[in-house]
Amino acid sequence: MIRFTSHTAAAIGEAMIEMAPVGDGLYRRGFAGDTFNTAWHMAQILPPSRVRYVTRVGQDKLSDEFVGQLTADGLDTAGISRDLSRIMGLYLI
Length: 93
Fold this sequence. Notes:
- The protein is α/β, with parallel strands linked by helices and 93 residues long.
- The chain has helices at residues 34-45, 61-72; strands spanning 9-12, 16-23, 26-32, 51-58, 80-83, 89-92.
- It contains two helices and six strands, in the order E-E-E-H-E-H-E-E.
- The strands form two sheets. Strands 1-4-5 form a three-stranded parallel beta sheet, with helices on one face. The protein has a three-stranded mixed beta sheet with strand order 3-2-6.
- Strand 4 (51-58), helix 2 (61-72) and strand 5 (80-83) form a beta-alpha-beta unit.
- The radius of gyration is 14 Å and the shape is globular.
- The N and C termini lie far apart (36 Å).
- The mean pLDDT is 92.
């Protein structure tokens, strides 16, 4: 069960691994998605851990990096669950 305080915002959705071209056939890897982008920007202006991201990711290295980035960026990751048989989606800009 996910519990929220009266001062917690939550975004529910998916984030994906984003590959963005940087030139010369090279790509920069990041994470993006509508709900993730919104939650990330909210977390930059609200007090730490006041924005919770609710999603489901894999148990692979990239999913670990994603959850670690959210934590480092001040988001509450208590709403993120893990799935042993799935990985995050990938898209190319």
